[in-house]
Amino acid sequence: MVAFLSVFMLSIPLAMAEPGHQPEMLTVSVAKQIADQYLKEHASSYHLKSDLSELKYSTTITTPLADYVRYQQVIGNHPVFTNQVVVTVSRAGKVQLVVSDFKPAREVQKIPSKQISQEERTDRAFEQIGAKDKETWGPTKQEFGYLVQDGQAIPVYRVVVHSVNPFGAWETYLRAGDGKLLAKRDLNRHATGSGKVFLPNPVETARSVSGLSDRNDADSPALDAQLKPVILQGLDGSGNLKGQFVNIQSRSKTFSQTLTFNYTRNQNSFEDVMAYYHLDTIIRYIHGLGFTNVMNGTITANVDTYKEDNSFYSPTKKDLTFGTGGVDDAEDAGVIVHELGHAIQDNQVPGFGNSEEGGAMGEGFGDYMGATYEDALTQDDFGKACVAEWDSTAYSSGNPPCLRRLDTNKVYPDDLQGEVHADGEIWSQGLYEMAQAFGRDVATKIILQSHWSLTPNATFHDGAKAIKQADVILFGGMHGAKIDQIWAARGISTQ
After folding, report:
1. Pairing mode, if any, of strands 78-90 and 95-100?
2. Region 269-279 average pLDDT
3. CA 343 – CA 424 distance, rounded (Å)
4. What's the CATH code of the domain at 166?
5. Which domain holds residue 399?
């Protein structure tokens, strides 16, 4: 959207403004007349026709200090959605400001004679927002108009639906005729809350295991000292830990009317806050890299509902479960983000990891996501190439303890063990070395882009080739030589 700003200093004589007196408030018609005159005289500056035939007057808002005359861009008598012009007129009858997002259309596409039905458009809108059913809490709204994209005025239907799951109001723009989605927008006004979490885990932030012990979820001064205040984004305002991207389900039924979620680890609600914050943060990170079509629904995380020392993603239920054996898994951001890694891959390639090597790639990608997330939060060498330092105090005596490492120097195929977690260390090291070489953001972009090229039965070789090609797509192949070197060291060809 381009905003054209202009200050009009030419005084327009008004019958009601006598010399030596403060001008009275303009009438609505006079303010509009002044705005119309100015836009006609300066039409070329705003890419308008001099007769203003592509604008339709909407409203004039009158305040003690100025009038604000608003116009809607139209084609025929139909709106060009969201595109408007606002003219600010002072009490003295001067145009002080024009803000315009008018988009000229070089060509207006013909309205198709054959249209999908109103019911089909509603179904298509629900499908595009990822609704699990068509249960609603408000009426569906449909309106015909245009979107201007690249100089083309495209006839569309603006369809607003109110979904229960995911909860909220959603705006979609469907091309007239075939109903293809051209744009969508979340209309919900999300709330923010606050809470306390480990960021990413107490071993990382304390830079030591000394004095840190689970003791069946008991609090301690050493552990309490590692709690960090955070902002919880995207909450639906209900008081539950339910939001734009994450829905927490737990026995604790965590609730706060004030959206303040401050707990210590001996309270089960602490793990709920941990899971919400870290899952929401990593999803927003992915979207910030440009992958807004990945994990763009709401994922459910089951916390404190599974007593084993294990966590998992269910590709059938499309949800996450975090176990409470040993150190509760949802107390460690590395574990939380690792499990989300499986959801990300399944979201990009349904059924991913059907082969043994594909399963190892899934575990390696999860470890990569967890380790680089931890690195970004601590930004020092303690815990580097190690994931889930706090959770692993229950079963590792290392310093720091690690669930797995990303620098084992395993080589394919000599070091294959036929177990996906162990073999995943081959894959995770290659991904992690890309992050060290190119930076986390660039490496993650390449990796996520590569997933689109894979199948459920993909192999290490397929994955490495896809990474090489993704670099070509995203960066013109500028990282190709280093990518070849990294994967050759793991025994995997990119050719």
Report:
1. antiparallel
2. 98
3. 16
4. 3.10.450
5. 189-495
